Amino acid sequence: MDIKALAKKIFEKGRQQGLGDMEISYSSGRDLSLKVFQRDLDGYSFSESEGLSIRGFYKGKMGRSYTEKVDESSIDLLIKNVAENATVIDSDDEEFIYEGSSKYKTVNTFNPDLEKVSEKYKINFVKKLEEEAFNADKRVVSVETCIYGDGCAETSMLNTKGLCLNDRSNIAYTYISVVAKDGNDIKTGFAYRAGNDFYEFNPKDIAEEAVKEAILMLGAKSIKSGDYPVIIRNSAAADLLEAFTGIFSAENIQKNLSLLKGKLNQKIGSDNFTLVDDPFMEKGLASKSFDGEGVACKYKKVIDSGILKTYLYNLKTAKKDNIETTANSSGSLGIAPSNFYVEKGKKTLDEIISGTDKGLMITELQGLHAGLNTVSGDFSLAASGYEINDGKITGSVEQITVSGNYFELLKDIEEVGSDLKFGLPGESYIGSPSIKIRKLSIAGE
Amino acid sequence: MVKYNKLHKDRSDCVLNKQLIEDTLTAALSTGGDFAEIFVEDKTNNGIVMIGGKVESTVSGRDYGVGIRIFKGFNSVYAYTNKSDKDTLIATAKKAAAAIEGTKSYIRLNLERSGVKNINTIKIDPESVEKTRKVQLMRQAYDTAFNCSDLITQVTIGYTDYTQNVMIANSEGLWKEDSRVRSRIGISSVASKNGEMQSGFFGPGASKGYEFFENLDINSYAKEASRIAVTMVNAKYSPSGRMPVIIDNGFGGVIFHEACGHGLEATSVAKNLSVFSGKLGEQIASPVVTAIDDGTISGEWGSFNMDDEGTESHRNVLIENGILKGYMIDKLNARRMNMDITGSSRRQSYRFPPTSRMSNTFIDNGSSTPEEIIANTERGIYAKNMGGGSVNPSTGEFNFAVMEGYIVENGEIKEPVRGATLIGKGAEILKKIDMVGNNLSYSQGLCGSVSGSIPVNVGQPMIRVSEITVGGREGAE
After folding, report:
1. Hey, what CATH class is B9-233 in?
2. For chain A, where do the domains classified as CATH 3.30.2290.10 start and end?
3. Cβ–Cβ gap A48/B81 under 8 Å
4. Minimal C-alpha gap between A332 and chain B (Å)
């Protein structure tokens, strides 16, 4: 696809129809996914796809459209949609088509070696992954999901102000979920890896991690309701942070949808809590040199030793607050962090556990899309994990809920571990070490 | 008389010619596959967001793609592309076929184009309605919701409509087209008091055109969203512990959707991964429970003329008087299970291979009145409106959020409580449903699972669960 030529035609046609500045984003990519069930490659999927989105001014307002049928036959409809959509906008917020930053930092998001791994090798890997899970423990009765996938994506951004940016990245991921059974007791455990170095994936390690999670949960019981000191293990803490990332968005601040409004430069977390958005992070799976509006990305501490330093901005919201954008536009709509993580502390998880007299460690949280209120910060989530007595894990716990308020939790962080771990990447790549909270409310028996 | 759905065919690019379909299917079967299918989608989307009474963003656009699926025994291959020219389709089909090891299967293709019985009549094509009219509707919802109370500080209205044209053809000779139109509006109100915020939401939707909005009492939904937010900002935290819970009709049906529905999808049943695998004919729920998955209800959000494999939608009885009667089964899992398909194979788009999913899933009416249920409850929680939830089908562990809850005491509804979450195991909770009301109603939602996010109805009359774990921030009861 000669995207420059197509862009030129779109811009010409747009001008003829009365559009002002315009910008297009074109993405194309390939994906592969391999699924194994009972030693059989039972699912094999691949795709080659592309899409084009456009935004542009019409009578002073910004309209948007997109198409997945990327050819000249779509031009008229795209332009018609942009004009029509702009016409109904009545927000007074000023929008921008950006001419480009003076300098862009190079980030390394493409690993040519990944494109050279043979399919046979990948199939062997995912079959081995399943086999290792069955080998790890005889109580493993089935492997629910055993998947390997990879993909490569390219994006071009061009506008009538002369901006012309390109970006390319690739990624591989693997996920396994196992079922362990002991008598009538059934438990599941999962593990995953993501990155663009295939050879870092070790099937034995990944399978054993998933199996260990399931086996340790066998025999789990509910516990007595009450307030407990709670260690939220790294991946669960990252999941919780991910569910609340919206509170840092300037869009939500300006719309009165975040309680962090008016809290800049105030203490909102404990001293040991520092939250970073680093688009240049080594091996970061949301690393990028420019954001969704073509602005050069920036490193920033959102919370520094408990003090709220900035919100996450795009051009529109930054203009409203009369400051520079933090380059966190996530495309045509919205604001999102890049590699977004809690800075690690000094203590290992074991040290934090042994410093806990009586409490709980939460290893998994469920219902994060439903059981929390990002506006109030309240959460009440189904959870599982381990009971801690006299500094030792004494048993596993299930069928409990953990409740609290995220804004209060930030102030109640007693310990931040050294075990920083990231979740599966999406628009953002979010990570946290294990954190210990002074107390949270647990409902069980 | 059978009516055929012809809407938008003129604008759609999703009908390929017979020769191209046959060539693609033949290429797909060139290495020994025993079934091949082609799915073409051409979809127009419209979305408008209004925040604080102003239209903040509008997007409209076109999704377009082709998916090719091949089976060999229990194994499947899936590929998709955005292009539908002959070279791309044949190359994609061949590349997909290359993943199957075998020799050419001699399947005689005999495509026969047939119509689909139309259950969702579209009166006003949403594409024909001016955006300004859609905005007027949103403004009305906004004004009503915002002016409900001084405590309402923000209202967000989301409007969507889409027309999804699909063509499905397969090596068994099936060749069908359909057009699916859906319309929905979401109202989200936020109430603030003393630095705290709570929200309320309502999102009515249907498999209808713009006539859905013209016949909708939008003000009553807007008022409900704000009423919930205001009630909750004035509520204290929910107590926690095990107690009886009364769950009201409509979106309360999310309990069945999570606690049981997902566990009855062939996706997990076929591989023996569900707690309900191999339990047909057994008593899995209390005798007062009858549950149905019905994709044939005219105009409902989760209804469809044909599923994404081209099978007409069915009404499937899942549980009758507590006895497990059936599962939801797609073509591929039907092979593993050696059972019939149930018209339940769905997908978000051409980007996903279809699999068994829910449509409009509900607990059927029972014999109690809502008043009786409340009057018979000494102490517990009344969940008037539910939020979303999730489930692990292997263990049956589910959780869901109560959006609007109240304390029940001595047979009466008392003060509101916020922040309650209900958790449990599906197999256990089904046996603890001890009263079922007679006020069945449906609510709309989007269900996310392996084949993407799809529109579904949940539903039930008021029910009572004799004991369930309630998670709240107040100490134990």
Report:
1. alpha beta
2. 112-155+162-217
3. yes
4. 9
